Amino acid sequence: MIEPPENAELREFLGSLHHGDLLTGTVAAVEPFGVSVALDDGLDHPLFPGVGFITFPELSRRSFEDIAEIVQIGQRVSCVFLQFDPWNGEARLSLRATQSDPIQAFAEGVVVGQRLSGRVSKLLPFGVVAEVADGVEGVVHRRELAGAPTHAPGDGVSLGDDITVVVTGPDRQRRAVSLSQRQALPCLR
User: What domains, with CATH codes, occur in the chain?
Assistant: First the structure.
């Protein structure tokens, strides 16, 4: 087990940062849980390739399969400081906090009842997720899928299928979009 680094100068630097500070650096390594960042104004970390760390959920507002879609080793990044991780002696960072939120922009421009085209991106036990705009995914509950009710969402649609849906509820607070495939079909209205 790795013990937390005891480096007073590093702890003083990290303790001087404030939530929301914008920090710049270079992606130093891709780790199993995120990305190490060598901060421009930071010190060297005694154990890790960088004193900053971005967990996978904080990399992007968009879903991604491969980290290379978001960052690569050697890439310059600007990140928001979230917190000081005293156990690892790191600055926890967010790249996604520097990006505009596509769901908020989508929710402003869409109305309930609007028909959209989407592509099935995930199959879930309770329905499917469809990408309806760049970086915007919505949920089609199992009862809102076209056709006869099924026990599994994969019975009626498959991953990658193009589907037509109707917006039933953009929720800006929860950052969620509810969709219906049934309401998009005239005979099922």
Answer: 8-98 (2.40.50.140), 102-188 (2.40.50.140)
